[in-house]
Amino acid sequence: MTERVLTGDRVTGKLHLGHYAGSLKNRVILQDQYETFVLLADIQALTTHFEQPDFIRRHLREVALDYLSVGIDPMRSTIFVQSMIPEIAELTVLYSMFVTVNVLRHNPTVKSESKSGGLDDMYYGFLGYPVSQAADITFCKATIVPVGDDQLPHLELTRKIVRRFNELYKPILLEPKPLVGDMPRLVGTDGQAKMSKSLGNAIMLDSSTEELTLKIKRAVTDPARIHKNDPGHPDVCPIYAYHQAFRPEGAEEIREGCEKAAMGCSACKGFIIEALEQLLEPMRERRSYYAARPDTVDDILMSGTERARGIARETMKEVREAMCLDYFG
Ligand code: TRP
Fold first, then answer.
1. What is the structure's pLDDT at 23?
2. The domain spanning residue 216 has which CATH number?
3. How far is the CA of 9 from the centre of ligand 1 (A)?
């Protein structure tokens, strides 16, 4: 049996270059080797955005367009909607019997995401979203999960849940491994924090040439390099991080030019704009193809969801049997 890949995103915003470098790029490669499932996590989006259901509804389509535009191919990958797989909710309830509140409260990603809302008074659904994420991964018995490194604690929990379930009931679930992109988390154009739409430091995958150019031109560089003949420090410069991520073959030359003050920031920025244009242009083309065909996109999501549902039903049958919940045969 070929191994399965599962991954997905909360549908709380369009995706950006950080998502691409951290995980989308891997997904596009993996779909040729494995049976790939890509989840539009609308229920997980509700854990933070339950007051804005139509915001989530809108973004579900936007993220689907992001997937199609980067080259996730509906012929090779199953793209599906989380809320339309009720078995994920069922599994979440069953797993929650043997996951303690303390383990969830100590999950570093839950902790850092809860900072604004406060660690002491989290919503029950939000606190438990890593359990729901374990259900996302295990309903289809995925063994490979390409994600950014912030997701590693959730993968660890999933592995624990699988081991616990298998020893308590019956060994039917599979332990997944994370697959993290080979670059550190991409920094935003402010050079201050990881790229994030809500911080306003992100370059979105659907950026036009003008938007891309402006974002790069306005991006922070080494603050110690005030004049062109001041030597620069590429390791503190977000533009250099973009060279490493998207133009690795030229990065060494950029480093030298910067450190020796032989190349100015605007020339350096020119090279990365050109490289990113080459990356984004085919994405723009695919996006406009699908954006002009909303019915095709709906068909892709409906048939992907139908497929995922079939697999979820099979797993649920096994789980009910293992947990003695198959009362009438
Ligand atoms: N937590 C992920 C994010 O914030 C989204 C997600 C939901 C996910 N379920 C998943 C990722 C299962 C990998 C596997 O983007």
1. 87
2. 1.10.240.10
3. 5
